[in-house]
Amino acid sequence: MWLLAPSVRRRKTRAQRAETRTTIGKKVTMVKEVEVGGLPEAAVFTPDGRYLLVGNYLDQDFSILRVDGADIVDTGKRFKVPGHPASARMSPR
Fold it and tell me: With bands split at pLDDT 50, 70 and 90, how would you rate the model's confidence at 19?
């Protein structure tokens, strides 16, 4: 099971990190931190599970992260949205 948690730390830039965590039994372990945009709130996997989209509320965009087995890699790509993404959902199609 994957968990995504925004890691809000005071920084000189607006960029923040999203942490990926996994659970084994009752123990939650941080797997990796990936830098994303300002105030990450929304997170959604693509239907095929190959990508994780993280909505950056302050930047009004989504960071595109590639899921590679147990690893998550930043693709360096983003796409703008007309509002502030506070939540997200994805159609199975």
Answer: low
